[in-house]
Specification:
Blueprint lengths: L12 E5 L1 H11 L6 E5 L6 H10 L5 H10 L4 H8 L12 H12 L3 H11 L5 E4 L6 E6 L4 E3 L1 H8 L6 E7 L7 H9 L2 E4 L4 H9 L4 H7 L3 E5 L14 H12 L6 E5 L5 H9 L9 H6 L3 E5 L2 E2 L6 E2 L1 H15 L10
Parallel strand pairs: 1-2, 1-7, 2-3, 7-8, 8-9, 9-10
Antiparallel strand pairs: 4-5, 4-6, 11-12
Length: 337
């Protein structure tokens, strides 16, 4: 892949993460750019992905499949088919999209080849890349010295306690990142981390061998999309600076210059419902963020029309492109004291 940069109006965009947050953003970005590369975590070990991983010895397909679906240019019936989940029998809970990718994996030499084949079949906008082809599991070390192994176990292990996640790692540690993923970051004009679960969607990508280093060494416009709400079992009580400090300390790198935070007030009734579930709006502590060498940008990017607080894909994507055009040559420098 060439490292020639894209144009000002059609930048090369590398997005890094996983989960529903990343796929939601991709649905908006594909309307604005064709130069998108999604670099996706493969550490999931729960649900339908975990079943296929255990049965077939393949990387978990779920997060990758969600991103392919988000970027696909297909008829509505195909969209519904890929999202269809079986309701009974031995396949209960499994999605057709996961099985489709599993079949292609069986026909391919590597998982990234299977992902590329599925992407070609669905004529997606841009590219989706697994962060690594290695069979990895996520482990979290907590502030009290305990450890949980397996992405699906981390939140339950932490819930009901006041301990924080101190560090995450992959097993095996520091697996080699997919070379195409590193090249995509090196060629990018804009690098977006998140939105998504801090420790289980974003961070697994950054503790591979090659990704954090490529992001840190890039002269691209680098921005982190802050979650709107804290997440029970991962980030209870976390401020914006807590999120950013965790990303920097776990990766060992200064990864971005800007943090995009939602500016809309979440309705009180909705906040109360989330509070009962152990979540609340993330407090944006500007001064502490600035001391980490990161500038705070606010925009109305949240939506709750579905009854759940999410990023609005169209608003978020338009804001990211606007900020790229305005801020791409601006840097924030680490503050002393």
């Amino acid at each position: 892949m060439s490292t020639t940069k894209g144009s000002k109006h059609d930048p090369r965009i590398a997005v890094i993460g996983g989960g529903t947050g990343l796929s939601t953003m991709l649905r908006g970005l594909k309307k604005l750019s064709r130069n998108i590369t999604a670099i996706v975590t493969v550490a999931d070990d729960g649900g339908g992905s975990g079943m296929l991983r255990a049965d077939l010895g393949m990387p978990p397909p779920g997060d990758v499949r969600n991103c392919i679906q988000a970027l696909a240019n297909t008829e509505p019936i195909m969209e519904k088919l890929l999202a269809y989940r079986f309701t009974e029998g031995s396949l209960k809970g499994q999605s057709f999209g996961n099985l489709f990718l599993a079949a292609l994996n069986g026909m391919s030499d590597t998982f990234d080849e299977a992902v590329r084949r599925m992407s070609d079949v669905l004529a997606i906008t841009g590219r989706v890349l697994p962060v690594t082809n290695e069979n990895v599991y996520l482990a979290a070390e907590f502030s009290d010295g305990t450890e949980a192994v397996g992405e699906s176990h981390i939140a339950d292990f932490k819930k009901g306690t006041d301990k924080r996640i101190k560090r995450v790692r992959l097993i095996p540690e520091r697996p080699k990142a997919l070379p195409e993923a590193v090249k995509a970051i090196e060629a990018a004009d804009m690098i977006v981390l998140g939105p998504g679960s801090l420790y289980t969607s974003i961070m697994p990508n950054l503790v591979t061998d090659g990704i954090a280093e490529a992001v840190a060494n890039s002269d691209a416009f680098r921005i982190y999309v802050l979650n709107v709400m804290t997440q029970d079992g991962e980030t209870e009580g976390y401020t914006a600076s807590d999120h950013i400090e965790a990303l920097f300390s776990n990766s060992g790198e200064h990864l971005f210059d800007w943090c995009l935070a939602n500016s809309l007030e979440i309705p009180a009734q909705l906040q109360e419902r989330y509070r009962e579930e152990g979540a609340e709006p993330v407090e944006v502590d500007d001064d502490a963020v600035y001391k980490l060498g990161v500038g705070v940008l606010r925009a109305p990017v949240a939506s709750w029309s579905s009854g759940y607080v999410r990023h609005d894909p169209d608003r978020l994507s338009r804001e990211l492109l606007r900020l790229y055009n305005e801020k791409s040559h601006t840097r924030i420098y680490l503050q002393e004291g």
